[in-house]
């Protein structure tokens, strides 16, 4: 497991990165200048040039390094407090966060002053040493120093940005994105493109064009030096392209992978990248979106637990508001026989536990196994609908199969209740198939997704009829006609039903099936 970086390691890394880039740029500049202007200067002038370069390195680099170190050192106090979990005033924390984002610009300021100070420190001694100095030499030296500075500072800027993202931002930004800090000026994506073009395209071309400004006395040397300069220029271009690719590629890859994860349903996906540029708000909005999706999914699950999963899906898929559609459905009513009387004198917690255990098992049978929808709980029973959640033509078969499975499941529950010395449960199941109005019923302030109509009323009456007939499950002739498969059923004599003029023919399980 990778150990977390300490703030001291982070500061050292951030401090060294730009210095290393400047050293590489300075080495290229020295190599380029010494070799390039040699045909234009005398041996004495060459000695003055080398001596001036030595003094520049001895004076400018230490001064620039001290200035840079003093800026980086400003982070030490805050990071030390953060490591010791000490409270930090919000305004002071925001100030140091702003400095972290603007740190590459401080590096540009210090580096530019250092590079520009090299021009008079090298050109003036050459002019003072010999009045016969070729007029092209100061121009070549000045342009080459500026070109080297642009290459070195651009690479240092990109490398420092990467170092800040990797090392310093995680220590300073725990609760907010760097892009939210006021008064910070990160380099934009367009600015990086321009900077890369100057460093990788413009500067190398200028370096090569300058070669034609100076005559080369030896053809072989004139070929070798341009090749060397071109190779070094291509290397610089590749390095800057890699740095910019890291600055662009990492957030793009993270966003792509996160979007794909969300598309697969992984709503706990968050992007933990800290960016001060345009990617910062984009990442923050993406995380805000996933948080919203998680909240909605949690609400959806909670909604589904209260109204039923299929009912929730129907409600969310339908147009909000009152109304419904007429459709043929199979309605089932289930009731526990004598549950109220048997619960008298028993501990309410135990009664509720038994009822929940029963309902949990029956809901699983109806919804998970037989494509039904438990629409509402009715005290010690419930109403279920078949043929509502999808266009299944065999919804009557689903209801009958669910009733048989519920009887079998109840037998298992009763065996468990008996082992716990609890009285067994008996149920009545009534099933009817007919047309009902299915949809959102109620008021504008309170809606309920349900089914209403004669089909629902008849199913309720049929469940009550099970007590008269002495059957566990009864279904009407309307349901029997809709069955697509054979079932082990037997008809009962027509029975009068309250609210219906003619007696109703019902079917029940044969004795062998009922005791299966």
TrEMBL record:
GO BP field: cAMP biosynthetic process; intracellular signal transduction
Segments forming domain HAMP: 246-298
PROSITE patterns given in the database record: GUANYLATE_CYCLASE_2, HAMP
Membrane-spanning intervals of the chain: 12-32, 52-75, 105-128, 140-173, 194-213, 225-245
Swiss-Prot/TrEMBL keywords: Cell membrane, Lyase, Membrane, Transmembrane, Transmembrane helix
GO cellular component terms attached to this protein's record: plasma membrane
Family annotation (SUPFAM superfamilies): HAMP domain-like, Nucleotide cyclase
Domain Guanylate cyclase: 330-463
EC number(s) from the headed UniProt entry: 4.6.1.1
PANTHER family the record matches: ADENYLATE CYCLASE, TERMINAL-DIFFERENTIATION SPECIFIC-RELATED, BLL5647 PROTEIN
Protein name (record): Adenylate cyclase 1
Source lineage: Bacteria, Pseudomonadati, Planctomycetota, Planctomycetia, Pirellulales
